[in-house]
C-alpha cells in the first residue's frame, strides 16, 4: 500500500476549505488500499463521532494509490491534510518540498509481509528471493525490499519490480512473474494460495509506515482543525484497543469479510501496536534507516518535518536522538 505500506497511505481530501485562512472542517478520507487495516481508526472515529465531537466532519473513505501520489496531490492544493506513507514524505523532503508532520499513524510493519505462492517450493525464506515486487516508487514496500535483506544478512542479487499497486503485485505473483509480493491480510483471510516467505515483523519491531501530514500554510491557518484530526485519531486508537471486537465488526462490514477473520486482523494489529497518533522514536528511526538504504545515501534530513504543537497531551512525542 503504503507501507508500502502496502504503502499505507491515507489522505484527507478537503470538501470545504477557505483559501483565505478559514477553517477546513469537512473531509473525505482517501485511503491507499482502503480495504486494509489503515482504514480502521478512521472507520472507528467516524462511527463513534470522535471527529465530529471536535468540529470535523469525516465523509467517505476513498481509495488512493500509494507511493508519492498522495503527497503530490496535497502539494498541488487538492489535499490539505494527508495520512501518507512516511517514506514518501522523506523522498519529497529530499526534493525540497515544504511539509509538516503533525501526528503519527501506522507505526508497525503489520500487514506488510511478503508472500510466495504456496505451490512454489523454491521460495522458503528471504535468502531464496531473486525477484521481489513492491507497490510504487517512494513507497514503504519499496524501502522494505532494501532494509529487510540487509537486516537478515541476505546477499543474493535481487531484482526489485514496481507493480503499481497491491492488487497488481498479487497478480504478478500469481502469474509467476515475481517470487514474492505483499499480500494484504484481507486477501490472505480468504485463500490458502499464498505462504509467508518474509514476516517483516521478525526483522523490524517498529516502523513508521505513515504520518499525518499537512503544509505549514494549512497548519498555520487551521490549527484547530489539525488538532481535531490528530486528537480524533488518538481517541480512535484508544477505542480500538479497548473494544477490538467492535472495531472488527465495523471493518468486516466495510470490506465484506467474515467477522472472525476481521477479529484476527484487528487482534494482530493491536498486538503489534500498529497505530499511534504520537511520535515514536524507534519507529521513525527504523523507517529513516530503511529509506537511507533504499536511496543509498546518509544525507537525509527529517527532524525539521516533525511538529508536536498539534499532538494531544497524552500521546508520545519522542523523536530519534539525532533530532535532539
From TrEMBL:
InterPro entries: SsuA/THI5. It is found in: Periplasm. One of its GO terms (cellular component) is periplasmic space. It comes from the Bacteria. Pfam families: NMT1. The keyword NAD does not apply. Residues 37-247 form the SsuA/THI5-like domain. GO terms for biological process: alkanesulfonate transmembrane transport. The keyword Transferase does not apply. Keywords: Signal. Belongs to the bacterial solute-binding protein SsuA/TauA family. PANTHER family: ALIPHATIC SULFONATES-BINDING PROTEIN-RELATED (PTHR30024), TAURINE-BINDING PERIPLASMIC PROTEIN (PTHR30024:SF47). This is ABC transporter substrate-binding protein.
Amino acid at each position: 500500500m503504503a507501507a508500502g505500506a502496502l504503502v499505507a497511505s491515507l489522505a484527507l481530501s478537503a470538501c470545504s476549505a477557505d483559501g483565505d485562512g478559514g477553517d477546513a472542517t469537512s473531509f473525505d478520507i482517501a485511503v491507499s488500499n482502503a480495504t486494509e487495516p489503515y482504514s480502521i481508526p478512521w472507520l472507528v472515529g467516524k462511527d463513534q463521532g470522535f471527529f465530529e465531537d471536535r468540529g470535523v466532519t469525516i465523509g467517505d473513505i476513498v481509495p488512493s494509490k500509494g507511493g508519492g501520489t498522495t503527497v503530490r496531490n496535497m502539494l498541488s492544493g487538492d489535499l490539505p491534510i494527508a495520512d501518507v506513507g512516511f517514506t514518501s514524505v522523506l523522498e519529497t523532503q529530499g526534493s525540497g518540498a515544504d511539509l509538516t508532520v503533525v501526528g503519527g499513524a501506522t507505526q508497525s510493519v503489520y500487514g506488510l509481509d511478503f508472500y510466495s505462492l504456496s505451490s512454489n517450493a523454491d521460495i522458503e525464506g528471504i535468502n531464496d528471493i531473486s525477484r521481489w515486487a513492491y507497490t510504487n516508487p517512494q513507497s514503504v514496500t519499496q524501502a522494505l525490499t532494501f532494509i529487510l535483506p540487509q537486516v537478515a544478512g541476505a546477499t543474493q542479487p535481487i531484482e526489485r519490480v514496481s507493480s503499481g499497486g497491491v492488487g497488481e503485485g498479487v497478480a504478478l505473483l500469481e502469474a509467476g512473474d515475481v517470487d514474492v509480493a505483499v499480500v494484504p491480510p484481507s486477501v490472505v483471510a480468504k485463500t490458502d494460495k499464498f505462504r509467508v516467505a518474509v514476516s517483516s515483523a521478525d526483522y523490524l519491531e517498529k516502523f513508521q509506515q505513515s504520518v499525518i501530514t499537512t503544509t505549514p500554510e494549512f497548519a498555520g491557518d487551521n490549527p484547530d482543525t489539525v488538532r481535531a484530526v490528530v486528537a480524533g485519531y488518538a481517541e480512535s486508537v484508544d477505542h480500538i484497543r479497548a473494544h477490538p471486537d467492535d472495531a472488527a465488526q465495523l471493518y468486516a462490514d466495510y470490506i465484506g469479510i467474515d467477522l472472525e477473520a476481521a477479529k484476527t486482523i484487528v487482534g494482530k494489529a493491536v498486538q503489534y501496536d500498529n497505530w499511534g497518533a504520537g511520535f515514536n522514536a524507534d519507529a521513525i528511526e527504523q523507517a529513516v534507516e530503511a529509506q537511507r538504504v533504499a536511496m543509498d545515501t546518509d544525507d537525509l534530513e527529517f527532524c525539521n518535518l516533525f511538529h508536536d504543537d498539534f499532538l494531544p497531551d497524552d500521546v508520545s512525542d519522542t523523536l530519534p536522538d539525532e533530532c535532539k
